[in-house]
Protein backbone atom coordinates (compact mmCIF):
# COMPACT_ATOMS: atom_id res chain seq x y z
CA UNK A 1 0.00 0.00 0.00
CA UNK A 2 1.60 3.31 -1.01
CA UNK A 3 1.54 6.44 1.17
CA UNK A 4 -1.34 8.09 -0.70
CA UNK A 5 -3.49 4.96 -0.51
CA UNK A 6 -2.72 4.64 3.19
CA UNK A 7 -3.56 8.29 3.74
CA UNK A 8 -6.89 7.92 1.92
CA UNK A 9 -7.59 4.64 3.73
CA UNK A 10 -6.75 6.25 7.07
CA UNK A 11 -8.88 9.29 6.28
CA UNK A 12 -11.82 7.11 5.27
CA UNK A 13 -11.49 5.05 8.44
CA UNK A 14 -11.25 8.16 10.63
CA UNK A 15 -14.31 9.75 9.07
CA UNK A 16 -16.25 6.50 9.11
CA UNK A 17 -17.66 5.71 12.61
CA UNK A 18 -17.19 2.00 11.92
CA UNK A 19 -13.46 2.61 11.43
CA UNK A 20 -13.04 4.35 14.79
CA UNK A 21 -11.75 1.11 16.34
CA UNK A 22 -8.91 1.01 13.79
CA UNK A 23 -7.47 4.43 14.67
CA UNK A 24 -4.64 2.92 16.70
CA UNK A 25 -3.81 0.43 13.92
CA UNK A 26 -3.92 3.17 11.28
CA UNK A 27 -1.55 5.40 13.21
CA UNK A 28 0.75 2.44 13.89
CA UNK A 29 0.99 1.73 10.14
CA UNK A 30 1.64 5.41 9.42
CA UNK A 31 4.49 5.55 11.98
CA UNK A 32 6.06 2.39 10.55
CA UNK A 33 6.10 3.94 7.08
CA UNK A 34 7.96 6.99 8.42
CA UNK A 35 10.45 5.01 10.54
CA UNK A 36 14.12 5.22 9.60
CA UNK A 37 15.75 1.87 8.78
CA UNK A 38 17.88 0.27 11.51
CA UNK A 39 20.73 -0.29 9.04
CA UNK A 40 21.69 1.87 6.11
CA UNK A 41 23.16 -0.05 3.17
CA UNK A 42 25.53 2.12 1.17
CA UNK A 43 26.40 1.57 -2.46
CA UNK A 44 30.11 1.48 -3.38
CA UNK A 45 29.72 5.01 -4.82
CA UNK A 46 28.16 6.23 -1.56
CA UNK A 47 31.01 4.70 0.45
CA UNK A 48 33.56 6.33 -1.86
CA UNK A 49 31.81 9.69 -1.48
CA UNK A 50 31.83 9.46 2.32
CA UNK A 51 35.48 8.42 2.33
CA UNK A 52 36.38 11.32 0.02
CA UNK A 53 34.54 13.75 2.29
CA UNK A 54 36.27 12.40 5.41
CA UNK A 55 39.70 12.60 3.77
CA UNK A 56 39.45 16.04 2.15
CA UNK A 57 37.02 18.28 4.00
CA UNK A 58 37.93 21.28 6.10
CA UNK A 59 35.76 23.69 8.01
CA UNK A 60 36.29 27.41 7.64
CA UNK A 61 36.07 29.98 10.42
CA UNK A 62 32.64 31.02 9.14
CA UNK A 63 31.36 27.45 9.65
CA UNK A 64 31.17 26.45 5.98
CA UNK A 65 32.68 23.20 4.79
CA UNK A 66 35.13 22.99 1.91
CA UNK A 67 35.51 19.68 0.10
CA UNK A 68 38.03 19.08 -2.67
CA UNK A 69 36.73 17.97 -6.02
CA UNK A 70 36.80 14.19 -6.42
CA UNK A 71 39.22 13.85 -9.32
CA UNK A 72 39.42 10.50 -11.08
CA UNK A 73 43.15 11.14 -11.48
CA UNK A 74 45.34 13.85 -10.03
CA UNK A 75 46.12 16.23 -11.54
CA UNK A 76 43.11 16.22 -13.87
CA UNK A 77 43.66 16.69 -17.59
CA UNK A 78 41.02 19.30 -18.23
CA UNK A 79 42.54 21.16 -21.15
CA UNK A 80 41.91 24.78 -22.15
CA UNK A 81 38.46 26.21 -21.63
CA UNK A 82 38.99 29.98 -21.54
CA UNK A 83 38.03 30.53 -25.20
CA UNK A 84 34.81 28.57 -24.77
CA UNK A 85 34.03 30.35 -21.50
CA UNK A 86 34.71 33.74 -23.13
CA UNK A 87 32.52 32.88 -26.13
CA UNK A 88 29.69 31.73 -23.85
CA UNK A 89 30.08 34.84 -21.70
CA UNK A 90 29.89 37.07 -24.81
CA UNK A 91 26.67 35.38 -25.92
CA UNK A 92 25.24 35.71 -22.43
CA UNK A 93 26.31 39.35 -22.20
CA UNK A 94 24.47 40.24 -25.42
CA UNK A 95 21.34 38.42 -24.21
CA UNK A 96 21.43 40.13 -20.82
CA UNK A 97 22.01 43.55 -22.45
CA UNK A 98 18.96 42.91 -24.63
CA UNK A 99 16.93 42.12 -21.49
CA UNK A 100 18.49 45.06 -19.58
CA UNK A 101 19.83 42.64 -16.96
CA UNK A 102 23.59 42.92 -17.50
CA UNK A 103 24.21 45.17 -14.47
CA UNK A 104 22.16 42.87 -12.25
CA UNK A 105 24.20 39.88 -13.47
CA UNK A 106 27.43 41.71 -12.60
CA UNK A 107 26.00 42.22 -9.10
CA UNK A 108 25.24 38.49 -8.85
CA UNK A 109 28.83 37.63 -9.83
CA UNK A 110 30.20 40.22 -7.38
CA UNK A 111 28.12 38.62 -4.63
CA UNK A 112 29.77 35.27 -5.40
CA UNK A 113 33.15 36.96 -4.90
CA UNK A 114 32.03 38.73 -1.71
CA UNK A 115 30.78 35.42 -0.28
CA UNK A 116 34.07 33.69 -1.23
CA UNK A 117 32.32 31.36 -3.66
CA UNK A 118 34.65 32.64 -6.37
CA UNK A 119 37.68 34.87 -6.65
CA UNK A 120 39.07 37.20 -9.26
CA UNK A 121 41.86 35.69 -11.32
CA UNK A 122 44.86 37.89 -12.11
CA UNK A 123 46.55 38.11 -15.49
CA UNK A 124 49.54 36.24 -14.04
CA UNK A 125 47.28 33.39 -12.96
CA UNK A 126 45.75 33.26 -16.44
CA UNK A 127 49.16 32.63 -18.00
CA UNK A 128 49.50 29.43 -15.93
CA UNK A 129 47.45 26.33 -16.79
CA UNK A 130 43.90 26.93 -15.55
CA UNK A 131 40.32 25.98 -16.10
CA UNK A 132 37.65 28.61 -16.77
CA UNK A 133 34.19 27.48 -15.72
CA UNK A 134 31.57 28.90 -18.10
CA UNK A 135 28.78 30.82 -16.41
CA UNK A 136 25.53 32.25 -17.69
CA UNK A 137 22.60 34.11 -16.21
CA UNK A 138 19.17 32.55 -15.88
CA UNK A 139 16.26 34.85 -15.20
CA UNK A 140 12.95 33.83 -13.72
CA UNK A 141 10.66 36.80 -13.30
CA UNK A 142 8.10 34.77 -11.36
CA UNK A 143 10.63 33.98 -8.63
CA UNK A 144 9.99 35.74 -5.34
CA UNK A 145 13.58 35.35 -4.12
CA UNK A 146 16.07 35.28 -7.02
CA UNK A 147 14.96 36.80 -10.29
CA UNK A 148 18.41 36.40 -11.86
CA UNK A 149 20.96 33.78 -10.86
CA UNK A 150 24.28 32.50 -12.12
CA UNK A 151 24.52 28.95 -13.46
CA UNK A 152 27.96 27.38 -13.82
CA UNK A 153 28.30 24.77 -16.55
CA UNK A 154 30.73 21.97 -15.67
CA UNK A 155 29.64 19.90 -18.68
CA UNK A 156 31.23 22.17 -21.32
CA UNK A 157 33.97 20.35 -23.25
CA UNK A 158 37.50 21.75 -23.29
CA UNK A 159 40.30 21.61 -25.87
CA UNK A 160 40.97 17.99 -24.85
CA UNK A 161 37.32 17.00 -25.42
CA UNK A 162 36.75 16.49 -21.72
CA UNK A 163 34.83 18.44 -19.10
CA UNK A 164 34.86 19.08 -15.39
CA UNK A 165 32.10 16.52 -14.90
CA UNK A 166 34.00 13.88 -16.90
CA UNK A 167 37.23 14.20 -14.90
CA UNK A 168 35.42 13.98 -11.56
CA UNK A 169 34.20 10.71 -10.07
CA UNK A 170 30.59 10.50 -11.19
CA UNK A 171 29.43 8.75 -8.05
CA UNK A 172 30.45 11.77 -6.03
CA UNK A 173 28.74 14.47 -8.04
CA UNK A 174 25.05 14.02 -8.63
CA UNK A 175 24.43 16.97 -10.97
CA UNK A 176 26.43 19.31 -13.19
CA UNK A 177 25.41 22.24 -11.02
CA UNK A 178 27.46 21.47 -7.91
CA UNK A 179 29.23 24.13 -5.87
CA UNK A 180 32.77 24.07 -4.58
CA UNK A 181 35.33 26.38 -3.07
CA UNK A 182 38.37 24.26 -3.95
CA UNK A 183 39.37 26.15 -7.11
CA UNK A 184 39.24 29.69 -8.41
CA UNK A 185 36.67 30.64 -11.03
CA UNK A 186 37.77 32.78 -13.94
CA UNK A 187 34.90 35.27 -14.17
CA UNK A 188 35.01 37.34 -17.33
CA UNK A 189 34.95 41.16 -16.89
Task: Tell me about this structure.
This protein has 189 residues and is mainly α. It folds into 2 domains: 3-34; 42-189, no CATH class. The protein has 7 helices and 4 strands, in the order H-H-H-E-E-H-H-H-E-E-H. The protein has helices spanning 3-15, 23-34, 44-56, 82-98, 102-114, 123-127, 164-167; strands at 58-59, 65-66, 135-139, 148-152. The strands form 2 sheets. A two-stranded antiparallel sheet has the order 1-2. A hairpin with an 8-residue loop joins strand 3 and strand 4 (148-152). It is extended. Mean pLDDT is 76; it is low at 1-17 and 172-189.
* Strand line-up of the largest beta sheet: 1-2
Structural class: mainly alpha
Largest sheet: 2 strands, antiparallel
SSE sequence, one letter per element? HHHEEHHHEEH
> How many separate domains make up the residues?
2
**Low-confidence spans:** 1-17, 172-189
**How many distinct beta strands?**
4
Report the principal-axis shape.
extended
Determine the N-to-C terminus distance: 57 Å
SS strand fraction:
5-15%
Task: Give the integer mean of the pLDDT values.
Answer: 76
Report Rg: 24 Å
Number of helices: 7
State the helicity in percent bands: 40-55%
